[in-house]
Amino acid sequence: MIKLTLTQQPYLDGTNEHPIYTAAAVDEEGESYWVHWTVRDEYKKELKIEDESDACEWDVYEAIIKDGEYLDVKLFDVHDCPI
∠76-30-80 over CA atoms, to 5°? Predict the structure, then answer.
């Protein structure tokens, strides 16, 4: 399992049709990654999310990306999740 640590708070990203939360992360060797979370369906209709704590399932990642390559999320353990 590869441990990732977030280096920033996740922010709302993506498109109106497919909003996601995105945050930068690093592994123990300092390699950079991007982590994406899916916005829950009930929040997709609200373009302004007031309470972000429930906007996503923060322990379920939609994607983990390194150098433009989508990696198997099951290989990663992400720390410092926002919620």
Answer: 50
Cβ-contact 79, 7 below 8 angstroms: no
The range of the structural domain enclosing residue 61 comes to 2-79
**pTM listed for this prediction:** 0.87
Q: What is the rounded CA–CA span in Å between residue 80 and residue 63?
A: 17
Q: Which residues pair with 59 in a beta bridge?
A: none
Pairing relationship of beta strands 2-6 and 76-79 according to DSSP bridges: parallel
**Cα 22 to Cα 8: distance, rounded to the nearest angstrom:** 9
Q: Which residues of the chain have pLDDT under 70?
A: 45-49, 81-83
Give the pLDDT of residue 41. Answer: 82
Which amino acid appears at position 33 of this protein?
A: Y
